[in-house]
Amino acid sequence: MLDKVTGRAMFTDDLALPGMLVGRTLRAAYPHARIVRIDAAQARALPGVCAVLTHEDVPGDNIHG
After folding, report:
1. 20 in the Ramachandran plot: left (φ > 0), alpha (ψ -120 to 50) or beta?
2. Is 61 helix (H, G, I), strand (E, B) or coil?
3. CA angle 19, 39, 54 (to 5 degrees)
4. Which residue in 19, 42, 52, 56 has the most C-beta neighbors within 10 A?
């Protein structure tokens, strides 16, 4: 999509719609570490948090990387 005023391209990051949710990714602090447990209870309890997704929410083989 092209911005008709400036001629600059519009990207999905440029959009802001009413009620739109924003996602964030938290990566491991230690590269190549073996993660044995994820406790997302504190994250889920934060005000404004609609969802917390972990590897358990991804169908199929979890072989990222």
Report:
1. beta
2. coil
3. 55
4. 52
